[in-house]
Amino acid sequence: MKNRVRKTRQPNLRTRWRFVLGFWAVCACLLVVRAVDLQVVQHDFLAHQGDIRNLRVEPLAAHRGVIRDRAGRPLAVSTPVVTLWANPREALAHQDAWQRLGNNGVISQKEFAKKVRRHESREFVYLERGLAPETARKVLDLDVPGIHSLTEYRRYYPAGEVSSHVVGFTNIDDQGQEGTELAMDAHLEGHSGRKKVVRDLLGRVIQDIEVLEPAEPGEDVTLSIDLRLQYLAYRELLGAVQKHKAKGGSAVVVDVRTGEVLAMVNQPAYNPNNRGNMDTASLRNRAVTDLFEPGSTMKPFTVAAALEMGMVTPSTTINTHPGTLRVGSKTIRDHRDYGIIDITTVLTKSSNVGTSKLALAMDQQALPDYLERFGFGQATGISFPGESDGLLPLRSKWRDVERAALSYGYGLSVSAVQLAQAYAVIANDGMKVPLTLRKVEGTPRGEQVIGQATSRQLVQMLETVVSREGTASRAQVPGYQVAGKTGTVHKVVAGGYADDSYIGLFAGLAPATDPRIVTVVVIDDPRGKAYYGGLVAAPAFSNIMSGVLRTLHVPPDRPEGLLAGAPETEDRS
């Protein structure tokens, strides 16, 4: 009986083992078939699907070119920043993770939800731009699905408001908006590239695969500006504007041989690194855009025309008695009756009557033609956004009163850079070279406007203005011989000229024995006790020119015999 039971169980065990072995054999075959299907048959398809889910092509940011001063000091540089963006579709699928945002100080849960829901049909929306990397990490480390980052560049301006009007600034997309940033935008802007990356399930980049198109940084730009002189001019102009409670002001420093602008500053200014409280009016580069009637600073050009035409010499006398001159319905006045004086004294004392008589003795078109040669009524060549051409009237016939007014700086409009260029012609032996904000290599080609002899005579005559007897003793520079001219003009208002609103000017050059530098200072609407150009603009000129000459190591041409305690004369021209 027992033997019969054993014989019955033995076949059942074999059958079970065979079934188990067969089952695992079938499973193994199925796995092999599936493996072959995945690794061979569907390999390309599956690899493509994997790439779609994990591989991404991202932009490769390119920074703008660096703007430098003539010595290579940076005036505008690009710094890497992080921009946070979201994929609304992805974020909406993981709303339970939004609570991780909490109070991170960058973007709150409420702000994030509002942006995502507002743009739920899109796959890209900006959250915050231009964040410092450590700030962006406060959000990225929270691992909220749908929030991603990309690297961009933001402009930083080391000199701040000191160079703001020359350099300008860019917008949030790194596009030039003002100044050199706008003028040279095509050269400065870089061209973004592309790269292939692998992202994880949370959208984080875990591996860079390859660069598909390299980024091309923008070209660097070297300006003619000397940052040392820019700081100096800015400080002195700011001090003058504050001291005289002026509405604004400008100062321009030019190398007469190359036409390079070494410094250009304005007040009011702005800080391009902090635009939260930026005033639109402060963005204007007044030295280039704002026009004014030049007043007595125009008299040297009237005298230059008379000298060039052989009408007079520096010692030729002219009768200005009784200190007034009736021209048509207008009476032209001097500060007092200077009587019979020579042409040099006409400039020394700034005689309106003297220059008017010179202009009236010329042909009708002679003076306007000479003024045009000096560059008035036309662009300087500085190629700056918003540059004004100025205004020099074109007329076939000039009335006597118009010619007389033109001789002492009324009836035309100029900018500070135009005035600087014109005085640079006098300083440069009568040669006019285009002004430029780019560093110049070599000697630029120029145009001979007046003869060398006339130019040198004019410089000697203008030296007397900056003397004890002249109207600009405060423009003296210790150790250097200075030549220049003051100007005080009524501001133009609706219906005529303001009785109590002025512009104070001084334009000068140094060293007079071998001119190197021209500086123009404009003080707009001084409201202190003084408003004459000799009192508000000349001292600022002196301080700027003194610092410029010493910084550039220009040898003194008057080491001895400097006048001490010169009287504070007033320019009433």
In short:
The protein has 573 residues and is α+β, with helices and mostly antiparallel strands.
Q: Can you tell me the CATH class of the largest domain? A: Alpha Beta
At CATH level 3, the topology of the largest domain is: Beta-lactamase
Distance between the termini: 146 Å
Q: Architecture of the largest domain, according to CATH?
A: 3-Layer(aba) Sandwich
Overall number of structural domains: 2
Q: Give me the number of helical elements.
A: 19
Low-confidence stretches: 561-569
Strand percent estimate: 15-25%
What characterizes the major β-sheet? 5 strands, mixed
Mean pLDDT: 88
**Extended strand count:** 19
General form = elongated
Helical residues, percent: 25-40%
Please give the radius of gyration in angstroms: 38 Å
**CATH superfamily membership of the largest domain:** DD-peptidase/beta-lactamase superfamily
* Helix/strand/pairing category: alpha+beta
Structural notes for this entry:
The protein folds into 2 domains: 57-222, Penicillin-binding protein 2a (Domain 2) (Alpha-Beta Complex), CATH 3.90.1310.10; 227-271 and 285-551, DD-peptidase/beta-lactamase superfamily (Beta-lactamase). It contains 19 helices and 19 strands. It is an alpha+beta fold and 573 residues long. It has helices at residues 2-41, 43-54, 88-92, 109-118, 133-140, 164-167, 179-183, 185-188, 227-243, 286-289, 299-308, 343-348, 352-360, 366-373, 400-407, 416-427, 452-463, 533-536, 538-551, and strands at residues 55-60, 67-68, 74-86, 125-131, 147-156, 193-199, 205-213, 221-222, 248-255, 261-267, 317-319, 324-327, 330-333, 340-342, 431-432, 447-448, 483-493, 496-510, 517-524. Helix 11 packs across helix 17 and helix 13 crosses helix 15 (400-407). The N and C termini lie far apart (146 Å). The radius of gyration is 38 Å and the shape is elongated.
